[in-house]
Known about the structure:
The structure holds two protein chains of two kinds. Chain A is α+β, with helices and mostly antiparallel strands. Chain A is built from twelve helices and twelve strands. Chain A has two domains: 2-202, no CATH class; 213-336, no CATH class. The longest helix of chain B has 14 residues, at 216-229. In chain B, the strands form three sheets. In chain B, strands 10-9-8-7-11-12-15 form a seven-stranded mixed beta sheet, with helices on both faces. In chain B, strands 4-3-6-1-2-5 form a six-stranded antiparallel beta sheet. In chain B, strands 13-14 form a two-stranded antiparallel ribbon. Chain B is built from eight helices and 15 strands. Chain B has two domains: 12-103, Beta Barrel (Elongation Factor Tu (Ef-tu), domain 3), CATH 2.40.30; 109-239, Rossmann fold (3-Layer(aba) Sandwich). Chains A and B meet through strand 4, strand 5, strand 11, strand 12 and helix 10 of A and strand 4 and strand 13 of B.
Amino acid sequence: MKMRKVRKDALDLFVAVLPRFGEVLAPVRRGAGWAFAPPRRWSEVDLAYPRTLLPPKKILLPPHERMLRFRKGEGYEDLLAEAGKPVVLFGVHPYDILGISILDRVFGSGRFPDPYYAARRRNTTVVGVDFTPDALHFCPSMNADWVESGFDLFLSDIGDHYLVMVGTSRGDDIVELSGCLLEDITAADVAEYKHRSAQRRASYATEVEIGDLPGILEMEYGSKVWEELGDRCLSCGACTAVCPTCYCFDVYDEDDLAAPTGTRGRTWDSCLFASHARVAGGENFRARRSARVKFRFYHKQRGFVAEYGRPSCVGCGRCSAVCPAGIDIVQVIRAIRDEDGHARAGS
Amino acid sequence: MLALEANPYLPLPARIVRIQRMTPGHNVYQLRLADPPAGGAWRHRPGQFVELSVVGVGECPISISSSPTRAGILELCVRSAGRVTDALHHLGTHDVVGVRGPYGNGFPVEAMEGQDLLLVAGGLGMAPLRSLLGYALDQRERFGRITLLYGARTPQDMLFREELFSLRDVEGVDVLLTVDRDPSGTWPHAVGLLPDLLRQIQVLPARTYAAVVGPPVVYRFVLGELLRLGFKKDRILMSLERRMKCGVGKCGHCTVGYKYTCLDGPIFTYWDVINLPEVV
């Protein structure tokens, strides 16, 4: 992989070329948190952010997306052209890049690639950056603390400079345009990178073992833990909204006022909502809240592993941060593993 | 695939060419694509489904009732049970709907060739099984004995009634019909549950594929009886009903355990089903 470095105090000059690749969205302060948003000034961009409220998913799979136009008596035409706006996501953490790669596998490949997602993904430039974990991050447990692909450029803090990894041809275009700002890396830079990388890995405070989790989840399908969680969960869906890999959507038709035309769109849905597994006629395969909470954990940590070879969790800690009932994914996994200090006889 | 359409979410316009009133609440719609794709006819497998759109109302999954052996014909047996299907029941012939598909795995008809077939349908479960039945009847030489057990609530609720009556005299085909109750008292066939019918028939489980489709209650009672008769779990096929909103493995609504009903199903073996949580 091509490597360069850029002086930190030259970063604002470096990013000046980015608007040529699309609208730049970067981590900026929003209320008590951070969001990927267009910065009004570069000084607004906070590269020391712990996590944004919403993950990059909001760009690739927008909360509401128009898919088709329809005319009664005639039929449908697609609105794919609306999905083509170029975007530069700047300052994306490795776990969120992995989150995008997981969405790529679900939406971008297989028998039926999703053309709306594919168009947005094609038009999205990703510039990654490393970060200092807080108490909620458990990325190494999900093998998500480091990525080798999924970005166009990746910036690693090595003191006065950022080391710049060039992941794609488009990333190289950015580097070429920035020309004289970039320098070759030295042996000392590599040593500094390795030192900081080891330090960062050692600084994760939260860890959970998932190697044998799929099997344990199979055995604990009837565990009381799910009932307890069902009693606490409010079915609000906040965890699924902020999850970088939760992709369930609902489809709706919307009539135009006083016209035989309208729009078919899709909107984020949640497996925690009572309607998620309800079919016509009223049968609901997950009518109980405990069944829905359990489903979310099984799909992330068991089902997705069977289908794609890894959990669809990247250890970002967002779901634990936003849950109004205080449900914490790490504590749930520990409880299922009997590592939470509670003996649970007969579970 | 239906068409070389890059956008799998884009329904193709189809015209309703015939509506057959089946029972109060159930109609069979025969559709014809307004612009047939280059390949011409639908190429579906028995057991597959389509996403049906009523323009301006919405979209829902409907299993295909016609056999792929009848080229150019697409029949959907639809119960009025929700927003989209209610709206469909207000449409008439010549009206335009949207369809995309066919989706799902369908029955493993290649593996079923040369074997006897035991079809067990409850209620609307007859809709997908009619596709398989038609497929086997149209290629009679490829299949052994065909036994159909079909249960409905009352005689009036029985789908494809006349068609099934007409099979009574066909060599090598047994049709056993039953109803839960017979308010009119004129039903000439059985009154009772499907498992009772199962006990009356002769099957050779080692050379038979059983295909069971119905509401959850049918699975609960029929599967145990099939095992008792000696059926192996991978020779019992079931079609699962889920909320397959997108049909293409994206929207997440039809996930069962780690399978998508729309991609990996809707046809599963009983062995698959045992290994998936919360199935029936």
